[in-house]
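WP5 quarterly update. Target: CS domain-containing protein. Source organism: Mugilogobius chulae. Length: 140 aa.
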Amino acid sequence: MEEVFIEVNVPQGTSAKEVKCRLGSKDIELHVKGREIFKGKLFGTTVSDEATWTLEDKCLIHIVLMKTNREAGNCWSSLLEGEYCANAWVQDQMQRKLTLERFQRENPGFDFSGAEISGNFAGGGPDFSSLQNNSFRGGH
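Structure tokens (predicted):
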């Protein structure tokens, strides 16, 4: 719900000096060895001073972006506007996971780790906030 994780395979032996990564609140840019890997406007907004990138084993770049909108309904369908879109199955799985994370936060005493979700989960799932007693209670 809070972060966007990006992994980019780069040529073996890449050094950190050969990586130029600009992480803005609305855009991102990555160049490796002078070659543009991607550049563009992010699907959503992020907290730029909380974004990080690391180079692992001189062949894999990890980028972590912190979303400004951390609601379950804010499931990015792509990294950049119109580019690197998740296919329908992956998008469905991401929305299911975010909905379960939301339920876990709203109901800290319950374990949703093995739960399956179906029905209305797109956009973060159903909104129970209008109910008088919006917590789940066992044994009733």
